Protein 1
Amino acid sequence: QSALTQPASVSGSPGQSIAISCTGTGSDVGSYNLVSWYQQHPGKAPKVIIYEVNKRPSGVSDRFSGSKSGNTASLTIAGLQAEDEADYYCCSCADSNTLVFGGGTKLTVL
Amino acid sequence: QVQLQESGPGLVKPSETLSLTCTVSGYSITTYYWSWIRQPPGKGLEWIGYIYYSGSTYYNPSLKSRVTISVDTSKNQFSLKLTSVTAADTAVYYCARIYSERWLPYFFDFWGQGTLVTVPS
C-alpha cells in the first residue's frame, strides 16, 4: 500500500484559484468514490473539507471543491485567501477496507 | 458534540511498547469506526488502523505486525498498542472517528488534538 501522490507544494496569490492533485491506483482512488481532503494548520489537528470526492461538510466554504477522474482526484480552492495557507492531505478508501493518505501539499498564499 | 482525547506516555524507550488510549465523549463508541493516525514531526499523515465496537479491526499493512487496536465500550474508549518501537515511531498520534456507511470507511469527521510520543534514538 503506497501513499497517494501529491505535489509537495503549490502557491498562489490572493483571489487566484489553485488545484492540488492526488494520484493513486486502481486499488484505491480509481475504485472508490471515497476520496476525502483535509486541511491542517500548524500545530492543529486536520479538518475535513471534502468527502466522497466532491461533498463539503457543513460550514466549509464553497470556495473548496473536489473532483475525480480515473485514478486522480483533485482539490480546487477558488478565490485564495490568506487563511487558506496550510497543509492539505487527500485520503482514499482502498482495497480490503483500508485507508491511505497522500503525502501532503503545502499551500503558500503569496 | 463528539470529542476525542488521547492519553498516554509521551516518552517510550526503544524496543518497548507504545500504549495510547482515546476517550470519546458526546457520542457512543458503538457506532461508526474509530481510528488511529500518526504524523512524524514535519512529515505527513499515516493511517495506522481502525476498529469497530464489535472488535473487528483493519490495519495498515506496513504496521500490521506491530499494531493492536482494542475497544472498551464500558468506558467509551479505544486503545493503541505498537510494539518494538524505534525512533522512526516518534510522531504525533491522533485518534479520530471514521464516518462509515455500508461497512466502508468514508472519512475522518472528528479528531482528537493529538499527542506527541517520542522514542529516543
Protein 2
Amino acid sequence: AQKVTQAQTEISVVEKEDVTLDCVYETRDTTYYLFWYKQPPSGELVFLIRRNSFDEQNEISGRYSWNFQKSTSSFNFTITASQVVDSAVYFCALRDNNDMRFGAGTRLTVKP
Amino acid sequence: DVKVTQSSRYLVKRTGEKVFLECVQDMDHENMFWYRQDPGLGLRLIYFSYDVKMKEKGDIPEGYSVSREKKERFSLILESASTNQTSMYLCASRTGTAYEQYFGPGTRLTVT
C-alpha cells in the first residue's frame, strides 16, 4: 500500500533554532519519487524538492536540507536557523505507480 | 513561471446548489488534478485528467464530477452541494513527463 506519514502535527520553535520535519513512507514499488511542498498562509503549495528512489544523496539548499534514507523509508527535512517566514504547513508526498500521495502535513510556527 | 489560477479564493454556497470551481493553467500541461484539503487529512485526490476530455476518479470522487473541454481548463462540479463538502479545494497541473505538480492558490468553499 502507498502511504505517507508525517507524525508531527504541529511544531513550534523560536527563531534561529534548527528544526527537523519527519516523513516516513510506504510503497511496494522500486521506482518512486519523494517531494516536499510548503504551504504558507496564502494557501498555495510551493514545490521545494523532488528525489528519486535511486538517489540517496542528501541535498542542501541554503538553510534547507533533506535526508533520504531508504533503509528506514524516511525523507526528513531540516531547516537550519529558522526564520519567521518559514512558518507554514509542510507536506511530504510520494509518487509511485499509483500517482501522488500526500502526508497529513506538519504545521511549523517560528516565533520571533 | 508556471501559473495555475482558480476562479475564486472564497466561496459560500447553500446546501443543494450546483457549484462550479474553475482552474486554468498557462503552461500547456497535459495533466490536471483536483484535491480537497482538510485538517489532519492532508490532500486527497478527487479527480484527475491526463488529456482533454479524459478524466479519472481519484480517492474520493463521490459527490463530484469534472469537465475538461480545453487543455488549459479543468472544472470541478459539485452537483448538489452538501455541508460535508465544506473544504479547501486545490487545483494542480504538471507535464506528462515531469513529476512536480504546480498548485493554484486554492478555493475555500463553505456550504451552509
